[in-house]
Amino acid sequence: MEQLAGGGPVFLVGQSMGGHTAMLAAAWYPELVRGLVLLEAGVGGEGDEHSPAELGDWFASWPVPFPDLSAAFEFLGSSPIALSWAQDLEEHSDGLWPRFEPEIMQGAIAAVAEEARWDEWQRVKAPTALVCGQNGSLAAAEVQRMLASRHDVQHIVIPESGHDAHLEQPHAWVRVLEKCLNR
Q1: How far apart are CA 6 and CA 34, in angstroms?
Q2: Which residues does UniProt assign to the signal peptide (predicted)?
Q3: What is the pTM of this model?
Q4: 70 and 92 fall within a common domain
Q5: How far is 162 from 147, CA to CA, in rounded Å?
Q6: Do 132 and 77 reside in the same domain of the chain?
């Protein structure tokens, strides 16, 4: 990986699959990463509560195109993540479409679920914060193993939140992120 334009190492922050990707980048390019903040992101493998096939089937079940936002909200619901999905729909001449193809999303999720990346987790050198929603989807056993295998990891729990803590408790998430980035 080439040196960044700004010259120095950066903080990587990611949620869920994005956090998994950030963790891999920190493991593979330690000289480029100054700090790592993972929100509801683990080492991968089959520990998630939903299989890639279940998630792929759900994405494929969307009755697209949605004629308008109200139809999208009616199908997706009113949870913070549902609102986020609906607000990110892309307008086409025939209606509103997601910005992804279900089979590509399923393939990306399957790649994370395929193999637990414990070796990469051990190779991360950057100061790391593992942030979990109080009712998140990371298995407690995975969190405990992550903490036990690297004693330099700060564990933070955002109360009254789940896997999408950044959407469910945005002010708490911003406070956590500011604290992590300013240490």
Answers
A1: 13
A2: none
A3: 0.82
A4: yes
A5: 19
A6: no
User: In terms of domains, do 99 and 125 share one?
Assistant: no
Structural domain harbouring 164: 10-44+116-181
Rounded-to-integer distance, Cα 88 and Cα 101, Å = 14
- Answer whether 55's CB lies under 8 Å from 43's CB: no
Q: Which residues pair with 156 in a beta bridge?
A: 131
- The predicted-structure confidence for 50-81, as pLDDT tens digits, reads as follows 678 888 888 899 999 999 999 999 999 988 88
Least confident of 38-52, 100-114, 158-172: 38-52
Asked if residues 165 and 39 have their Cβ atoms less than 8 Å apart, the reply is yes
Q: Which token pair is 22? A: 């950030």
Of the candidates 21, 27, 23, 26, the one whose C-alpha atom is nearest the C-alpha of residue 10 is 26
The amino acid at residue 145 is R
Please, which residues have CB within 8 angstroms of residue 143's CB and are 6 or more apart in sequence? 42, 130, 132, 155
The domain boundary, picked from 80, 106, 132, lies at 106
In degrees and rounded to multiples of 5, residue 102 shows phi and psi of -55, -40
Distance of CA 149 to the CA centre of its chain: 21
155 touches 140 (CB < 8 A): no
